[in-house]
Amino acid sequence: MAVAAMMIVVAEHDALAATTSGAFVHVSQAEQSVPFIGEFSNYNELMDVVMDEMRQFRSEVTFKYTGSLNNFNASFDGALQEALMKPGNDYIHGTLSTWRYTYSSAGDVTLTLTYVGTIEQEQFVTKRVKEIASELTIDPNMTDFDKVKAVNDYIVTNVAYSRDTTTTPHHMYALLTEQKAVCQAYALLAYRLFEEMGIESRYVVGYAGGELHAWNTVQLNGVSYQLDTTWNDLFYNGRDLGDNIQYNYFLVTNEQLRRDHTWDEARYPVATDTRYAMYHDIAMGIEHDDDVYYSSTHDRFLYKMNKQTGVKERLTTVRAAHIAAHGDTIYFANESNNGFLSAYNVNTKQLTTVDAVPVTNVRVRGDELQYDANGTMKTTKLAQPALRQTFQTVVERSEAERVVAQINALHGAKVEDVIAVREAYDALSYEERLNVMNVKKLLVVERKMRRAIVAANRIEAIDPQSAKFTQQVAMARLALDRVPATQRKLMTSVRVLEQFEARM
Q1: Which residues, at least 6 apart from 456, have a Cβ–Cβ distance to it below 8 Å?
Q2: What is the pLDDT along the chain (504 residues), one digit of tens a residue?
Q3: SS3 call for 159
Q4: Same domain for 105 and 152?
Q5: Where in the sequence is the signal peptide annotated (predicted)?
Q6: Residue 98, strand partner residues
Q7: Is-above-0.85 flag for pTM?
Q8: Of 208, 221, 271, 287, which has the fewest Cβ atoms less than 10 A away?
Q9: Cα-based angle 439, 443, 445 (whole degrees, multiple of 5)
């Protein structure tokens, strides 16, 4: 009996082009043999099973097709692509790279699949997604909006857009291990984090800027919105701006996105709601306490917006960029004055020039103000709020008032001081906690310092007299090594650990 010609690489696309949509199932161990998945007489039943195999990242399956083999190539490809585009299959769509198959005139088919990442990488991704989602949702009172914004802000401030990666830039593994990747990885990470948080979303593939592009739709209270984390990430001369975020593509409508994106709109939820339009004026901004300080897309002046009420206030009539904040002072590049480093005090309303040189990439790290001045990174020490003095000045107040004051004094605080504030809050009665209206600020600080807090607690728990002393020191060192260098500078217990290590 004659054998039909082999069908070679039906979809040898760019990884993004070959991706589609889907809910994630935990990765299984690599298969030991090629499984036979059954006999099928129609494509719908076949694709349901094929999708299940793909969720396990199966690399090869065999099956028997008992239906008509006329135009099998086109029919199979069409059915597979249609299945990939269905809601619930987004993650398969986003991670499938290529497929090929051979078949005989008897209907015996071998389907070979390749993915953007390996099984080991997928296992790593699953673990990190759970960890990140846990870190981002440390506050039990967070709304779904808070969670969506936390995901957007996490991605934008922790990764940079780049194709220059050691592993494929299309996969989240590069994004999570090298902190850089392309739009496909951005959108897939958002999708997985939303899934972990119980928020409905889609992984969308289309075009933007004349190139293949990926982003998300997300649903809040039954209402759909468009979200492009890649295009919310800011760059300057090819460099990622780190702390600064724009929200031009945050919870926007189809009409807004349609200005520079194209996609098969009929396949995805329609976004028409404009209730978050207040964020779309933020061209470059940062969160600080209960407000967002930003450069407006309309006039580039410096504004302040309250995160809870959305009330806006114009602070300056000079154009601002590269914004950073510390205490009561907002630092920025004054584009109305040659890009010189300027400072605006929100209490005195005074605008001053800090350094009469053009600057970019302004940021605050601990008690340091850092900025790029004509290609040279400069650093200036900033005055720190006297946290412990603040504790002493409020001893006459009620316990709740004291904790409120301590939380308000957490700007640039040592990690151990953050722990002390948490202990003070936990010691309050239920009724007293109700009066600590700024507890969310403590949660935000704890979230940012989560690894440092874990390390500090492990160092504090070391008992030199314990039989497990060596193990305790090793575990504390392991925890400390995971703390970002900028936060290690804010830990007084580092020296304690070094002294313990010297005794071993």
Answers
A1: 415, 416, 419, 491, 493
A2: 332 333 333 333 333 443 333 333 333 333 447 889 999 999 999 999 999 999 999 999 999 999 988 888 899 999 999 999 999 999 999 999 999 998 888 899 999 999 999 999 999 999 999 999 998 987 888 899 999 999 999 998 888 888 989 999 999 999 999 988 999 999 999 999 999 999 999 999 999 988 999 999 999 999 999 999 999 987 644 455 657 888 999 999 999 999 999 999 999 999 999 999 999 999 998 888 889 999 999 999 999 999 888 899 999 999 999 999 998 999 999 999 999 999 999 999 999 999 999 998 898 887 889 998 888 889 988 876 544 444 434 433 467 778 888 887 776 677 878 888 888 888 888 667 777 777 777 877 777 788 888 888 888 888 888 888 888 888 888 888 888 877 877 787 888 888 888 887
A3: coil
A4: no
A5: none
A6: 114
A7: no
A8: 221
A9: 115
Regarding beta strands 291-296 and 301-306, do their DSSP bridges make them parallel or antiparallel, or are they unpaired? antiparallel
Q: How far apart are CA 481 and CA 80, in angstroms?
A: 46
Q: Name the residue among 484, 354, 335, 346 with its Cα closest to residue 415.
A: 484
Based on the fold, state whether residues 137 and 256 are members of the same structural domain: yes
Sheet containing 108-115: order of strands: 36-40, 60-65, 108-115, 96-103
The last residue of a domain, from among 275, 290, 317: 275
Separation between Cα atoms, residue 165 and residue 169, nearest integer Å: 6
Expressed in angstroms, the distance from the first to the final Cα of the chain is 76
Angstrom distance (rounded) from CA 441 to CA 408: 8
DSSP state of 397: S
Grouping H, G, I as helix, E, B as strand and the rest as coil, residue 416 is helix
Instruction: For residue 440, give its domain range.
Output: 387-503
Strand, coil or helix: what is 275? Answer: coil
> Domains in the chain: how many in total?
4
Per DSSP, the residues of 431-457 read HHHTT-TTHHHHHHHHHHTHHHHHHHH
User: Which of these, 7, 225, 20, lies nearest to 101 by C-alpha position?
Assistant: 7
Q: Are 51 and 92 in contact (CB under 8 A)?
A: yes
Q: What is the DSSP string of 5-74?
A: PPB--TT---TTTT---B---PPPPPPSSPPEEEEESSHHHHHHHHHHHHHTT-SEEEEEE-S--TTHHH
